[in-house]
């Protein structure tokens, strides 16, 4: 039986289900992924075999593709949350790990595009860790 993964956007307008497993889980530090997420890296799951089924909110999804590149991002037009997309001529399913609500049975495979990481993205394991909002 194939693995089933469920997910949604922040506002709950868009919900989805993925049937099948993921082959890789990359943490990408390229400048485009940093812009996509507003963070140090994007955390994306990849599969060439899994299928995506939109449960609700498909009409609230938009996709932006950076011209003349392979880089694209799908998102909810209500809350802006990153959402799955099928890329590379409908062959590769890319799922933002943060959009997944169920358990993920794969750990990150690798940090990629590390040469272009932000200058402040180094030694982060050494800064204090706080379990809730500060102060």
Mind sketching the topology for me?
Layout: E1 4-8, E2 15-19, E3 24-28, H1 31-37, E4 42-47, E5 51-56, E6 61-65, E7 72-76, E8 82-83, E9 85-87, E10 92-96, E11 110-112
Parallel strand pairs: 3-11
Antiparallel strand pairs: 1-2, 2-5, 3-4, 4-10, 6-7, 7-8, 9-10
Overview of the molecule:
By secondary structure, the protein is mainly β. The protein has a single domain, classed as Beta Complex (Metal Binding Protein, Guanine Nucleotide Exchange Factor, Chain A), CATH 2.170.150. The chain has one helix and eleven strands. It has one helix at 31-37; strands at residues 4-8, 15-19, 24-28, 42-47, 51-56, 61-65, 72-76, 82-83, 85-87, 92-96, 110-112. The protein has a five-stranded mixed sheet with strand order 9-10-4-3-11. Strands 1-2-5 form a three-stranded antiparallel sheet, with no helix packed on it. Strand 6 and strand 7 (72-76) form a beta hairpin. The longest helix is centred in the first third of the chain and has 7 residues, at 31-37. The termini are far apart. The mean pLDDT is 94.
| Biggest β-sheet strands, sense, barrel | 5 strands, mixed
Strand content: 35-45%
- The CATH class assignment is Mainly Beta
* SSE string, helices as H and strands as E: EEEHEEEEEEEE
**Percent helix range:** under 10%
Give the CA-CA distance, first to last residue.
47 Å
The pLDDT mean sits at 94
Alpha plus pi helix count: 1
Spatial extent as radius of gyration = 15 Å
CATH architecture descriptor name: Beta Complex
Counted beta strands: 11
- Globally, the shape reads globular
CATH fold name, please? Answer: Metal Binding Protein, Guanine Nucleotide Exchange Factor, Chain A
Structural class: mainly beta
Instruction: Report strand order across the widest sheet.
Output: 9-10-4-3-11
